[in-house]
Write a structure and sequence with these properties.
Order of helices and strands of chain A: EEEEEEEEEEE
Radius of gyration of chain B: 13 Å
Radius of gyration of chain A: 13 Å
Distance between the termini of chain A: 31 Å
Mean pLDDT of chain A: 93
Largest sheet of chain B: 6 strands, mixed
Order of helices and strands of chain B: EEEEEEEEEEE
Mean pLDDT of chain B: 92
Largest interface: A-B, 25 and 22 residues
Shape of chain A: globular
Structural class of chain A: mainly beta
Number of helices of chain A: 0
Number of strands of chain B: 11
Low-confidence stretches of chain A: none
Helix content of chain A: under 10%
Strand content of chain A: over 45%
Structural class of chain B: mainly beta
Distance between the termini of chain B: 41 Å
Oligomer: heterodimer
Low-confidence stretches of chain B: none
Largest sheet of chain A: 7 strands, mixed
Chain lengths: ~110, ~110
């Protein structure tokens, strides 16, 4: 158990819909990272937050957005969903910035 | 910009044989290097990491990796494969601190009984 929690574990929705994925980092970790893992594109870094502020952006679509709240939990919002957005979405957290601890992921299926 | 190349998307070894998973990196500054393992339907778990100091790093489950600056490599090895080692392995590089970590494309390890 990494100490990072993600909800929900599974999510099934339809094209065009909007969903929110939630992540609670390890106690004391200030940094949160979001990744997308799919069969065709592998593990893709989406975005990083540090203590509430956006720190780095990766291959995140404009339809996707994220935020980190004062209690340090983070949410990833995915809107206007397409079939190709079906993937595993991981959250990771870190304290000193070196080692990232990954949550169990949210499996999103868009039908 | 930093990057990671993992040679071989699939590697098969016999149980008890040497495991060697290859990773080469590119970084403009002294890198921080990581190996993560992902078991089916689970998140990534840190196996080992190199930041500074001793170039031979020992990790969990009997794995180790050696940082070779001259070869820009950080290959992962284990003397004797076990069935439970079957998983996907990711090499990653960072410039340290809170800098972005770049992951390789992963290598799926199959262990044949």
């Amino acid at each position: 158990d990494s100490g990072v929690t993600q909800t929900p574990k599974h999510l099934i929705t339809a094209t065009g819909q909007r969903v929110t994925l939630r992540c609670s980092p390890r106690s004391g970790d200030l940094s949160v990272y979001w990744y997308q893992q799919s069969l065709d594109q592998g593990l893709q870094f989406l975005i990083q937050y540090y203590n509430g502020e956006e720190r780095a952006k990766g291959n995140i679509l404009e339809r996707f957005s994220a935020q980190q709240f004062p209690d340090l939990h983070s949410e990833l919002n995915l809107s206007s969903l397409e079939l190709g957005d079906s993937a595993l979405y991981f959250c990771a957290s870190s304290s000193m910035g070196e080692t990232q601890y990954f949550g169990p992921g949210t499996r999103l299926l868009v039908l | 910009a930093q990057s990671v190349t993992q040679l071989g998307s699939h590697v098969s070894v016999s149980e008890g044989a040497l495991v060697l998973l290859r990773c080469n990196y590119s970084s403009s500054v002294p890198p921080y290097l990581f190996w993560y393992v992902q078991y089916p339907n689970q998140g990534l778990q840190l196996l080992l990491k190199y930041t500074t100091g001793a170039t031979l790093v020992k990790g969990i489950n009997g794995f180790e990796a050696e940082f070779k600056k001259s070869e820009t490599s950080f290959h992962l090895t284990k003397p004797s494969a076990h069935m439970s080692d079957a998983a996907e392995y990711f090499c990653a590089v960072s410039e340290g601190g809170y800098q972005k970590v770049t992951f390789g494309t992963g290598t799926k390890l199959q262990v044949i009984p």
